[in-house]
Amino acid sequence: MRDPGRKSLAQLENLCKQLYETTDTTTRLQAEKALVEFTNSPDCLSKCQLLLERGSSSYSQLLAATCLTKLVSRTNNPLPLEQRIDIRNYVLNYLATRPKLATFVTQALIQLYARITKLGWFDCQKDDYVFRNAITDVTRFLQDSVEYCIIGVTILSQLTNEINQADTTHPLTKHRKIASSFRDSSLFDIFTLSCNLLKQASGKNLNLNDESQHGLLMQLLKLTHNCLNFDFIGTSTDESSDDLCTVQIPTSWRSAFLDSSTLQLFFDLYHSIPPSFSPLVLSCLVQIASVRRSLFNNAERAKFLSHLVDGVKRILENPQSLSDPNNYHEFCRLLARLKSNYQLGELVKVENYPEVIRLIANFTVTSLQHWEFAPNSVHYLLSLWQRLAASVPYVKATEPHMLETYTPEVTKAYITSRLESVHIILRNRDGLEDPLEDTGLVQQQLDQLSTIGRCEYEKTCALLVGTREEELKSHLQWKLSLEVTLGLSPAVGRLTWLVYIIGAVIGGRVSFASTDEQDAMDGELVCRVLQLMNLTDSRLAQAGNEKLELAMLSFFEQFRKIYIGDQVQKSSKLYRRLSEVLGLNDETMVLSVFIGKIITNLKYWGRCEPITSKTLQLLNDLSIGYPSVRKLVKLSAVQFMLNNHTSEHFSFLGINNQSNLTDMRCRTTFYTALGRLLMVDLGEDEDQYEQFMLPLTAAFEAVAQMFSTNSFNEQEAKSRPLSPLYLCFRGLLFFFFAFFWLFEWVSLPCVSLSLSL
Question: Residue 415's CB: how many other CB atoms inside 10 A?
Fold first, then answer.
């Protein structure tokens, strides 16, 4: 008689084969459905053991491990404690007796062990926490061959990672209790074990061409990194806050970090192992460099920082491995942590600071010159220099910081490399992407450069303006007029970068106490940009450049933040320079330039969503400040906007097809700003209000007439004209909701009919 267990085993293995190997979608879906039913069956546990013991394929073993993980993870009808203990012991014995399992099977079984241990962390049997003996559990693996050592280390690494990660199927409070208990009872022992094993490995002549020894070193580094990356206090930091991250090492770990051999271990490993391992080593160093300041007293912190800076210096003196992009990225992160976690006053007291800051400056300059190598890593270098430059006014140490020497070099390297990138992108032989295409990344870097550039600002301005004014003026007029007309772009690309950078350094004024001389320099830069704007705007009817216009808007936004409003002294040297060069004698005349640019953009760029959106945001920002608004409403251009807000004058209002203007909320922004401007002097002037509403009334009348006839496409009529009008109406509601006039206008037959539809 045939064994029914063998029959069911064969059926399960066949389903596994269909699930993991077949290319037929229908067959795979049917197998997946059958296996879901198997997972929920009462005899799933016994059949999983059968698959592990007698299964002939790795896929059946994977299925068994996956199903068991689901069984021990379920919150309703959980497995009894004795059964979970048996599964844990069975898994450990299974791994110990089968070293040649497929990698994915071993990983699945280790995941099962980690899940059982985490969820049973507070379970007791005869006053014994039976799932808290992870180090004891893996001891037998660590005392055996390299293959078994890998399994033992991987178990600890996966367990640490599993407990560190919140499980959405279980309460967060339970997760934090488990993580806190694990941190206090086991984590330091695991970290110490991993460091000791790394020391043993580094003391031997490892043959990293041997796959097993290669794997052991990799798993040890992952284990160490998981320990250092543990969420010690439950803050769940992520990559978005990477530059602000502090590792909250418990006080009980002090001994490990006071011992300089711990830090030295990782610097020695970096120099002794192949570059393929180095990113993990550097990641560990990043975490070590980020340990909380309060872990040390002042003397201990100075000693720790000295060892850290010595290690960084050694890497900079032997930069060969940094040609690997991953190594380069992690090293840039390490450099950024030098300032995010330590004060400039502490850095300058390090014995070899002058040499280190010189090496860092040279490394930064070289990195900026090779901007195409790892563009996402530059953020960390600029972050370092931004923090250094911002600290200059507050440093009290008598030792020289030397930033007056090196920040101008960094600024110059950034500016010249971006200008030179234009030619490289135009040749584009290597398929490089234009950095200007990523406006988010550009803005992030410019925010950092704004502070760096204001340090030794005279040198920054000299670089931007140049020493030969007539030569630069001739360059702008000749190059731009020729190349815009012909559609060529080298000069336009360079000017785009210059406008972005000028806007950034003007915005950086907020970071430093500005002098009259620096305000005069700002005035010189502003004059150059406004002259360029006059030239480009005069040619918009023939041709324009979207990137240059976006740079102009970025400049205007920075200019507005710093020099428009109550906080600005109108006797500023900037306004004096604007008066001398451009005849702009006061803020009202400067505001007229802003409004003129806004109207020009809305006229010529109405079908370009990025420019339209940013232009309207500029208008919206200008309409917020009360003093500037009162000046704005007196301008004839603003009165023109209030009385002529139609598609005839502002083409974006005539776009009803969302495929042409993806963000139709521009209308809401536009009418929100107009509402603010109208409200300034509206008072009880009903005639002025009715004059303002005339264009909208006419639009609603056209819609009402469309619906009152029988010859129209109902679906098209509903989807196209009304949605834009609703967005306009929404913008007005921000300011008119308390006015009886608005409700009176809504009650007009044409409006009420349109809104009811």
Answer: 20
Tokens of 357: 């800051």
CA angle 185, 188, 192 (to 5 degrees): 140
Instruction: Spell out the residues 6+ positions from residue 186 whose beta carbon is closer than 8 angstroms to its own.
Output: 132, 134, 135
Q: Are 68 and 48 in contact (CB under 8 A)?
A: yes
Q: Residue 336 has which token pair? A: 């950024």
Per the CB < 8 A criterion, the answer to whether 721 and 703 are in contact is yes
Tokens of 326: 């991953």
SS3 291: strand
Give the 3-state secondary structure of 302-333: HHHHHHHHHHHHHHHHCHHHHHCHHHHHHHHH
Write a three-state SS string for 453-505.
Answer: HHCCHHHHHHHHHCCCHHHHHHHHHHHHHHHHHHCCCHHHHHHHHHHHHHHHH
Tell me the pLDDT tens digit for each residue of 149-172: 999 999 999 999 999 988 777 788
Tell me the two tokens of residue 389: 């430059």
Helix (H, G, I), strand (E, B) or coil at 129: strand
Amino acid at 18: Q
CB 8 within 8 A of CB 49: no
Residue type, 713: N
Residue 195 CB coordination number (10 Å): 21
C-alpha Rg value of the chain to the nearest Å? 34
C-alpha span between 525 and 529 (Å, rounded): 6
Please name the residues in contact with 382: beta carbons below 8 A apart, sequence gap of 6 or more: 414, 445, 448, 449, 452
Q: What is the pLDDT of residues 545-604, one digit of tens each?
A: 899 999 999 999 999 988 887 666 555 788 889 999 999 988 889 999 999 999 999 888
What residues form DSSP beta bridges with 247?
291
